[in-house]
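SECTION: protein entry
WANTED: fold as C-alpha cells:
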Amino acid sequence: MPESTLAESTLAEKALAIHRRLCAVYGCPIAYFHDLDPVSELVSSLLSHRTRNAESGRAFKALRARFDDWEALIAAPTGEVQDLIAGVTWPELKAPRIQAVLRAVRERAGSLDLAFLREWPVPEARAWLEAIPGIGPKTSAAVLSFSRLRMPALPVDSHHHRVAQRTGLIGPKVDVGPAHAILRSQLPPDWDAQALYDNHEVLMLHGQRCCFHRNPACGACAVLDLCPTGQARSGARAMRDTVALHP
C-alpha cells in the first residue's frame, strides 16, 4: 500500500474512533437544533459567523418578527436591517451581505426557494451555493445539513476545527474552509445525514465543553490517548509538577 494511502487509512480509523468515543460521551444520535427551511437556514448561518449563538439567535428572531418574508428583507433599507442585527459581529457588513446573497439566490433559482437542492448530489448542491459571493464551505454545509433538507453534508465550525487540529486529523496550518473536504473524506462515504450531523455536533460539543481554546481540560478528555496535543500538554504539566516537588 502506498505511504499516502496508508496515512489516509490510519487517519480514517482515528476519525472513526474519535467519533465513536465522543458519541458515547455526548449521546448519539443528537437531535437537530433547527427545523428551518433552507433559505431561513442560510440567513441564520450568515448571521452566526464569528458570533455567539445567543446573539445570532436574537438577531434572526428580530428579522423574522420585523419582516413577513425574506423578500421584504431584500426590499428593506440596509440601515434598518443593520439596526435589527446590531448584536452580531460586524452588522455593518452582514446586513448588506445577507441582502446581496438573497438577491443572488432569487436570481439564480428564480425564487427564494432552495428545496430543489434536495434532488442534487451533495457536491453539486454545495458548489451551486458556494458560487454565490458570501457563501463559503461552512455556510453551504450548514444549509444542506441543518435545514429541512437534511442532506449528508459535514459542517466544520471553529470548535470542530480546533479539536480536529489538536487530535491530528488535520494539520496545524489547515484553515476551516479546506478542512471541510479533508474531514469529510476521513468518514465513511455511505454515512447518512444524521451520522454526519452527529460527527459535527460531538466534535463541536467537545470543543465547547472540554477542548477549550485556552486551558483545555486534557485530564478529563475522553480521547486523550488519541490526541498528541493533549498528551504533550499532560506530559509537560507532569514534568513541571515533578520539578516543583523536587527542585
